[in-house]
Amino acid sequence: MSGPGFPASRPEPPGQGRWRYGLGPHDRNAATGGALTMWGPMMTLRDSDAGRIAGVWIAPDGGELLVLTEAETTYWRAPEKRALWTVRERAGGEGLSPDGRLYRDSASGLFYPLLGPHGGRQLREHPTGGHITVDDKTGRVAVTDPAGEMQTLSQGNGLGDWRVAGFCESGARILVAEPRCLVLHAPQDRR
Predict the structure, then answer these.
(1) Which of the chain's termini has less CB crowding within 10 Å, N or C?
(2) Residue range 85-133, pLDDT digits in tens
(3) Higher pLDDT, 48 or 169
């Protein structure tokens, strides 16, 4: 099985390029002082953009986000960094379950399992190997590929009383969120 950001177990089709994760010294990024760059931010939301973050849902493919803030609930199309819809409601309003783990969109009737202050289902193991670690004392979030190469992820300002970090179900994106910042990471194409 292959996945974005991790080595493929079989050759990729011609013209598709190849996502590489375990990068060698020749792939070090000058902009980061020679540090390895395997995953990079593709979308960042700060509390100054939409208010303090109360919860978030990430689509299985990592392409869409539902973000609940103290002022609104917004459904985002991540690759385009475009809001598909916004409802002015405080922290999920009446759509939020009493325990904060589910959001129900009243227009569609769909339920979204949330990540937030209560935690939630954080996928820390990638489908093809590798994993995410979070240091509870420092708040540092790191991703390690199957070969053992590690990269610290940008994650906002580190202020807040909760933090979630995990892969989407497909492994194509990494979400790091806290009350004041949300960062969605994507693999870096190193052709």
Answers:
(1) C
(2) 999 988 888 899 999 899 999 888 999 999 999 989 999 999 888 899 9
(3) 169
Collapse the DSSP code of 25 into the 3-class scheme (helix H, G, I; strand E, B; otherwise coil) and give the result: helix
**Beta pairing class for 64-69 and 73-77:** antiparallel
pTM of the model: 0.78
d(CA 126, CA 166): 9
| Residue 79 dihedral angles phi and psi, to the nearest 5° | -60, -35
DSSP structural state of residue 30: G
How would residue 37 be classed by pLDDT, with cut points 50, 70 and 90? low
Rg (CA), the chain: 17
DSSP string, 123-146: B-B-TTS-EEEE-TTT--EEEE-T
Query: How far is it between the farthest Cα atoms of the chain?
Result: 52
CA 136 to chain centre: 18
How confident is residue 5, by pLDDT bands cut at 50, 70 and 90?
very low
Domain range annotation of the chain: 34-187
Question: Distance (Å, rounded) from C-alpha 16 to C-alpha 64?
Answer: 23
In this structure, what is the dihedral angle of CA atoms 47, 51, 57, 61, given to the nearest 10 degrees? Answer: -50
Name the nearest CA neighbour of 60 among 167, 163, 143: 167
